[in-house]
Amino acid sequence: EVLKQKIYDISLDGKYTFKNKIDIFSNSVVSMNQRFYSQGVSSNIKITDSKWFTAFDSTGTRINQFGDFPNDRISSSIPNKHMAYQGKMIINERLNRFAFTTYNCAVFDVFEPDSLIIARHDKLPKYFEVSGNNVIGVSFSPENIRGYMDSYSTDKFIYTLYSGKSTKDLTNRNFDDVSSSKIILVYDWDG
């Protein structure tokens, strides 16, 4: 589910230091070196913009968009591409890089601001659009391989919890079988 969010900067003592003007339907947002990076659709960005990520300055003003969606050969609207490729962004401020891992497929990318460093697209999603009145959404096929359930980073490494399972692997119709894992994959910041 995509939730509408206002982005806040919170100091270490827990007080709001400012509320910027980013009004976004976001799947993932990080703050790094006086910028915000978002994967999602913002109300101050045209819905037809075809890039995967958006960079904002500390006031919430859009700087640019960057990053092409993986070539999955599925004809889909840009908002639905954002839905299919939801995931988690993690940062390394020392290297000025962020990584993005996807939940519903095995896609792992590392970026420096505005440019791709490494792309690992091991399993692209198998999905189709769900359409209706003002509906943005996708549905995944039973053969779709789940990707990274979670990720965490240090200055040297990126740790991911990887599923690699599909809903056809369900036992007793228990979704936990697919969304849990014992596989930890470790990458350095060069992928």
Question: How would you characterize this protein structure?
Answer:
The chain is mainly beta and 191 residues long. It has helices at residues 78-84, 176-179, and strands spanning 3-10, 16-32, 35-42, 53-57, 62-66, 87-92, 97-102, 106-112, 115-123, 127-129, 138-140, 148-153, 157-162, 183-188. The protein is built from two helices and 14 strands. Strand 6 and strand 7 form a beta hairpin.
Proportion in helices: under 10%
Order of helices and strands: EEEEEHEEEEEEEEHE
Measured distance between first and last alpha carbons: 29 Å
Shape: globular
Largest sheet: 5 strands, antiparallel
> What is the CA-based Rg, rounded?
17 Å
Number of strands: 14
Query: Structural class of the helices, strands and pairings?
Result: mainly beta
Strand order of the largest sheet: 1-2-3-4-5
User: What percent strand?
Assistant: over 45%
Oligomer: single chain
Gist of the model:
The protein has helices at residues 78-84, 176-179, and strands spanning 3-10, 16-32, 35-42, 53-57, 62-66, 87-92, 97-102, 106-112, 115-123, 127-129, 138-140, 148-153, 157-162, 183-188.
List descriptors.
191 residues, mainly beta, 5-stranded antiparallel β-sheet, 4-stranded antiparallel β-sheet, 2 helices, 14 strands, 6% helix, disordered N terminus
Which helices and strands appear, and what pairs or packs with what?
Blueprint: E1 3-10, E2 16-32, E3 35-42, E4 53-57, E5 62-66, H1 78-84, E6 87-92, E7 97-102, E8 106-112, E9 115-123, E10 127-129, E11 138-140, E12 148-153, E13 157-162, H2 176-179, E14 183-188
